[in-house]
Specification:
The complex is a heterodimer. Chain A is of the alpha/beta class. Chain A is built from 13 helices and eight strands. Chain A has a six-stranded parallel sheet, with helices on both faces. A two-stranded antiparallel ribbon of chain A has the order 5-6. Chain B is built from 13 helices and 14 strands. Chain B is globular and about 60 Å long. Classes of the chains: A alpha/beta, B alpha/beta.
C-alpha cells in the first residue's frame, strides 16, 4: 500500500489487555450472531450452486464482525439500511432466517414475497430498511430516515452500511454533507473490504483513508478494525450515543475483508488479489479471533461453542427446509404492490 | 370561487395540505428564504417555519433521496425541483428507489412523495432548461405523472398528489404560472388523479393535448370553427395512470384524432396515446391518427428557431384538416 495507513482502534488496546469487558451472555450473543451469518451464507452458497438461488448472490463471509458488532449496540426500534451485501445486517437486526432464505429462493413466504431476492431484503417488523443495489444510492435515504426521526422528535438512530465502492459516488458526499449540515442521527458505517468488485481502493480513491472524509464534513469519524467485533462495538456505541443524544452523525470506517469473491460469479476473487493475500487475511477470521478470546477469558467453554454451533446449524437447516417448502409466488402477484391503494 | 393565478393555486394547495397534515413538509432549493425561484412557496417559510420548509444546497440526488427515506418511515415530503431539468440528477433516486421500493419490499415500504416543479418548453431558455421531461418518468411502473393545465387543476391535482400514498411526479410550467382562472376555495376541493377532462366539446375530430399545447389547440379550435370544423379537446391531466376511457370515448364519437405534444415526438406521449386509441377504437376511426409534436432537436435559443421547434396553432389546424378531409376507408 502506497499510503501510510492509520492504525485502527482495537478492543484489546482500548481495554488494556486480554481481560474482556463483557459478560458471558454478550459473548455468546456476539459469537452466535457471527456464526449465524456465516452459516446462513454458506448454506445460501450451496443452494446457489444447486441452482435454487438465482441472479446475483453477494456473500459477506469474513465481514461478520461488523454486522454483529454494530447491531449489538442498537435498540430494536433503531433503523438499519444497507447494500446488496446485506444478509448479515438483516439477519442480526432480528429478521427471521426462514423468511430471508425463502426470499433468496424466490418463494412466496420470503420477506418481500419473492419479489426482491438476495439484494433486496426488507423487514419492516425489525426496521430493516432494505438491501439497495445501486451503489451509493441508499446513503441519501439514510439521511432521510435521520431527517424523519428528528422531524418527529424521536431518539432512534439510523445505521447506514455501505462499501468502499460507494465512497467515490457523489451520493456519499451529498449524504454526508446534508447529514452534517442538518445534524441528523445517522451512523455511516463503511465496510471497507478493500475491493469494489475487482477495483482496489488504491485504484479508486485519491484518499484511501476513508474515515478522513468525515473530517472534511466536520463530523466525528474514525477507523476501526472490522475483524474485531468488540472494537466495532465500542466505536459504534460511541457513534450511536452521539447520534441519539446530540443528533450528531458519524462516519466509521470498519476495515474488513471478504473471504469470498464479489459475488458467486466471482467465486475465487483471485484475478485482482493474490491467493497469498486472501490466505493471510483468512488468518484473521473474525469468528475464530473472537472465539479464541472468549474461550481464553473463560466467558464460554468449548461445550458452549459446540452447542451454539449446533443451534445455529439447526436454525439454518430449518430455514433452508422452510424455503424449499414455500411455494412460488402466485402469477397474479406480478401486478400487485406496484401502487398502494389509499 | 376566486380568480387566482396558477402559481397562487399551487401555493394554496401546499398551504392547505400542510395545515391538514403535520407529516407534510417541503424540501428543495431556494424554497424558503428566497421564497421559491418561481415564488410558488411564497410565505410558507414564515407560516410553517424551517422544520417544514427546508432549504437545501444544490444536491438534487441527495435531497430527493432524503425525501424518499423520510417517506419510507412515515413523512409525506413534497420535493421541489427548481426546474424539472434538474431532476435528471435525481433520476436514479426516482426510478430505482422511489418507484420500486413498494414492489421490491413486497408491499412493506410505500413512498408517499410528491416531486414538483416546472418543466416543458419555456421562453428562450435554450436546450438544457426548456424541454418536456414527462417522458423520463411515465415509462416507469410505480410512478404517477401529472401535468396540470389550469389553476383549478393545479390546485386540485396537487392536493390529490400530496394525499396519495405513492410517488407522484407533478410537472408544472413556467409559462403557466401567471395564468389566471377560477379556483374553488373549499379546502376539501380535490381532483382525483387519473381523470381526463373534456375542455371543449366538438363533433368532427378529437384533439388530445395538455399544458401549453392545450391552449394552442383551443386557438386552433377557434380558427377551425370558422371553417365549420368542430373539434373536441381532451386534456388527460394525469399521464399515468392515463384515463384512456375518456379519450377513447371521445374518439368513438368524433371518429378522428389528433394528438399534440410539446416533446420531441419519437416514442413520446403522442405515440402512446395513438397506440391505445388504435388498439381500442380502430374500427371507429375514419382516418389515420395524426401526431403533432415538437421537432426532434434540442431546444434552440434563437426566437425564430425556438418557435419552429414547438408545435404551433397552424400545425394543429393543418393536422385537423388532414384527418377531417382524409377518408381512411
Amino acid at each position: 500500500m502506497a499510503q501510510k495507513t492509520t492504525t485502527p482502534r482495537t478492543a484489546s488496546k482500548a481495554n488494556g489487555g486480554p481481560s474482556l469487558d463483557i459478560d458471558a451472555e454478550l459473548a455468546r450473543k456476539l459469537l452466535t450472531d457471527m456464526m449465524l451469518i456465516r452459516r446462513f451464507e454458506e448454506k445460501a452458497a450451496e443452494a446457489y450452486a444447486l441452482g435454487k438461488i438465482g441472479g446475483f448472490l453477494h456473500l459477506s463471509i469474513g465481514e461478520e464482525a461488523v454486522a454483529a458488532g454494530v447491531t449489538s449496540v442498537l435498540r430494536t426500534e433503531d433503523y438499519a439500511i444497507s447494500t446488496y451485501r446485506e444478509h448479515g445486517h438483516c439477519l442480526v437486526k432480528g429478521s427471521d432466517p426462514r423468511r430471508m432464505m425463502a426470499e433468496l429462493f424466490g418463494r412466496r413466504d420470503g420477506l418481500s414475497k419473492g419479489k426482491g431476492g438476495s439484494m433486496h431484503l426488507f423487514d419492516k417488523s425489525v426496521n430493516f430498511l432494505g438491501g439497495h443495489a445501486i451503489v451509493g444510492a441508499h446513503l441519501p435515504l439514510a439521511a432521510g430516515v435521520g431527517f424523519a426521526i428528528k422531524y418527529q422528535g424521536g431518539d432512534e438512530v439510523c445505521v447506514c452500511y455501505f462499501g468502499d465502492g460507494a465512497v467515490p459516488e457523489g451520493e456519499f458526499h451529498e449524504a454526508l454533507n446534508l447529514s452534517a449540515l442538518w445534524k441528523l442521527p445517522v451512523v455511516y458505517v463503511c465496510e471497507n473490504n478493500r475491493y469494489a468488485m475487482g477495483t482496489s481502493l488504491e485504484r479508486a480513491l485519491a484518499q484511501t483513508e476513508i474515515w478522513k472524509f468525515g473530517q472534511v464534513y466536520n463530523i466525528p469519524c474514525e477507523p476501526v478494525d472490522g475483524m474485531d467485533v468488540l472494537a466495532v462495538r465500542e466505536v459504534i456505541a460511541r457513534a450511536v450515543d452521539r447520534a441519539r443524544a446530540e443528533k450528531t452523525p458519524s462516519l466509521i470506517e470498519a476495515r474488513t475483508y471478504r473471504f469470498r469473491g464479489h459475488s458467486m460469479r466471482d467465486p475465487a476473487g483471485a484475478v485482482y488479489r493474490t491467493k497469498e493475500e486472501v490466505e493471510r487475511e483468512k488468518q484473521r477470521d473474525p469468528i475464530v479471533l473472537f472465539r479464541e478470546r472468549v474461550l481464553a477469558a473463560g466467558l464460554v467453554t468449548e461445550a458452549d461453542v459446540r452447542t451454539i454451533e449446533k443451534d445455529v446449524n439447526d436454525l439454518i437447516d430449518d430455514a433452508v427446509a422452510f424455503a424449499e417448502a414455500s411455494p412460488e409466488p402466485p402469477p397474479e402477484w406480478l401486478l400487485t404492490d406496484i401502487f398502494k391503494e389509499s | 370561487m376566486a380568480v387566482i393565478t396558477y402559481r397562487e393555486a399551487l401555493n394554496q394547495a401546499l398551504r392547505e395540505e400542510m395545515k391538514r397534515d403535520p407529516r407534510v413538509f417541503l424540501i428543495g432549493e431556494e424554497i424558503g428564504l428566497y421564497e421559491g425561484a418561481y415564488k410558488v412557496t411564497q410565505g410558507l417559510l414564515k407560516e410553517f417555519g424551517p422544520t417544514r420548509v427546508v432549504d437545501t444546497p444544490i444536491a438534487e440526488s441527495g435531497f430527493t433521496g432524503v425525501g424518499i427515506g423520510a417517506a419510507m418511515v412515515g413523512l409525506r415530503p413534497v420535493v421541489e425541483m427548481m426546474t424539472f431539468n434538474f431532476a435528471l440528477l435525481a433520476l436514479d433516486q426516482i426510478v430505482n428507489s422511489a418507484a420500486k421500493l413498494y414492489y421490491m419490499s413486497g408491499g412493506q415500504y410505500n413512498v408517499p412523495l410528491v416531486i414538483r416543479g416546472p418543466g416543458g418548453p419555456a421562453h428562450q431558455l435554450a436546450a438544457q432548461h426548456s424541454q418536456s421531461m414527462e417522458t423520463y418518468f411515465y415509462h416507469v411502473p410505480g410512478l404517477k405523472v401529472v401535468r396540470p393545465s389550469t389553476p383549478a387543476d393545479a390546485k386540485g391535482l396537487l392536493k390529490s398528489a400530496i394525499r396519495d400514498d405513492n410517488p407522484v411526479i407533478f410537472i408544472e410550467s413556467e409559462t403557466l404560472y401567471a395564468l389566471k382562472g377560477e379556483v374553488p376555495d373549499d379546502p376539501d376541493f380535490i381532483i382525483p388523479l387519473g381523470e381526463a377532462v373534456v375542455r371543449r366539446e366538438g363533433r368532427d375530430a378529437t384533439v388530445v393535448a395538455y399544458m401549453g399545447m392545450m391552449y394552442r389547440a383551443m386557438e386552433a379550435a377557434e380558427e377551425l370553427e370558422k371553417e365549420g370544423i368542430s373539434i373536441e379537446i381532451v386534456d388527460p391531466r394525469t399521464l399515468r395512470p392515463m384515463d384512456t376511457a375518456t379519450i377513447v370515448g371521445s374518439v368513438r364519437k368524433t371518429h378522428r384524432a389528433v394528438v399534440v405534444e410539446a416533446g420531441a415526438g419519437f416514442a413520446g406521449m403522442g405515440s402512446e396515446i395513438a397506440a391505445f386509441i388504435t388498439e381500442q377504437a380502430f374500427d371507429d376511426l375514419d382516418a389515420p391518427i395524426e401526431r403533432v409534436t415538437g421537432a426532434s432537436a434540442p431546444m434552440p435559443y434563437a426566437r425564430n428557431l425556438e418557435k419552429a421547434k414547438t408545435p404551433s396553432k397552424e400545425k394543429i389546424v393543418e393536422a385537423v384538416r388532414r384527418v377531417c378531409y382524409a377518408n381512411g376507408s
